[in-house]
Write a structure and sequence with these properties.
Blueprint (H helix, E strand, L loop, with lengths): L10 E5 L5 H8 L3 E5 L10 H7 L4 E5 L10 H11 L2 E5 L7 E3 L5 E3 L6 E5 L13 E4 L3 H11 L3 E3 L2 E2 L10 H11 L2 H19 L5 E2 L14 E5 L4 H10 L29 H9 E4 L7 H14 L2
Parallel strand pairs: 1-2, 1-3, 3-4, 4-7
Antiparallel strand pairs: 5-6, 7-8, 9-10, 11-12, 12-13
Length: 307
């Protein structure tokens, strides 16, 4: 957002159903954060909600490819083109996912907007040995500016042309990632195989919905997230914990209800879709080393509670 020249008061539209990192920079730069609802099926940002949120002050849209599946980028890019907006992709949970346009062309998550942003936190599909991240762009001038900003605004040592930050990737993290990148497709395929096992065993259970698959995106399952209805989510999570099965709620408190963002002025009931999801979602164990015995145990325990 610094590289794109966004100024205080400029509006940035993003989803209310995401991790806090998506929105922190908006507030830190003095921009105006505009939160909107996700799609209740894909969990990704709602295209219709984007259309309704655009004002003359809107400058950027930040779609988040949540849980490993791309947001619906074709209409998002068209909206951005019509209104002259930047699209900044949050691809932290979907590195390696593919999006297919209506003309048959495919693009990787993070390569469709003007900039793609990712995280290399160890739990990610492509994770390093600590903290790290990267930006993607196919604009050479923008890439040069971004490199400068991440290194205190320098292009030549001790000559600072722009306001910058210290945001360089440690060499040891780059070395780890350089090796793991070669195996990214295999890592994602292992997650997809585990997800297919979950699908087979958990489909059709009353009071539970397995993850939705969009026809125009692959899903690489950073998380395998169920929707548990009828108020049974917390009961199921407690049962799984007692059986030695970890599960997580991503995310228990929507952004508009976070204390740090109360100044935005949103009301408790302003986001019914987001609120419903926070009360229903539950993510099961998902990583590259899950074996059949573990998957059978997890799904067997869940089926015992949803006969």
């Amino acid at each position: 957002m610094m590289a794109l020249g966004l100024k205080p008061g400029d509006e940035v539209i993003t989803t209310n159903f995401t991790f806090i990192a998506t929105v922190e920079v908006v507030e830190l730069l003095g921009l105006r954060l505009v939160l909107i609802e996700p799609d209740s099926n894909t969990f990704n940002i709602s295209v219709e909600a984007i259309k309704k949120a655009i004002t003359p002050r809107t400058k950027a849209i930040v779609p988040v490819h949540l849980f490993g599946q791309c947001a619906d980028m074709e209409p998002i890019m068209e909206i951005a083109r019509q209104h002259g907006l930047h699209v900044i992709e949050d691809v932290a949970q979907a590195t390696g996912a593919d999006y297919r346009f209506s003309d048959g062309k495919e693009k990787k998550a993070g390569t469709m907007g003007i900039i793609g942003c990712t995280s290399f936190f160890p739990s990610k599909n492509l994770g390093c040995y600590g903290d790290g991240g990267a930006l993607f762009t196919d604009n050479d001038d923008l890439a040069a500016l971004i490199r400068s900003i991440t290194n205190h605004g320098m292009k030549v040592r001790y000559y600072h042309d722009t306001i910058g930050v210290n945001s360089r990737l440690d060499t040891i993290q780059a070395a780890v990632l350089r090796v793991k990148l070669r195996h990214l497709d295999a890592f994602n395929e292992a997650r997809q195989q585990a997800a297919a096992h979950y699908d087979r065993e958990l489909s059709g259970l009353k009071g539970m919905t397995i993850p939705f698959r969009a026809a125009n995106s692959t899903h690489i399952f950073h998380q395998y997230t169920l929707r548990v209805t009828d108020g049974n989510r917390n009961r199921l999570r407690e049962y799984l914990e007692n059986e030695g099965i970890p599960s997580m709620v991503y995310y228990p408190v929507p952004l508009h209800m976070q204390k740090a963002y109360s100044h935005l002025g949103y009301g408790t009931d302003d986001f019914p879709v987001t609120t419903e999801l926070t009360n229903q979602v539950l993510s099961l164990p998902m990583h590259t080393e899950l074996d059949n015995e573990q998957l059978e145990y997890i799904t067997g325990c869940i089926r015992s509670q949803f006969k």
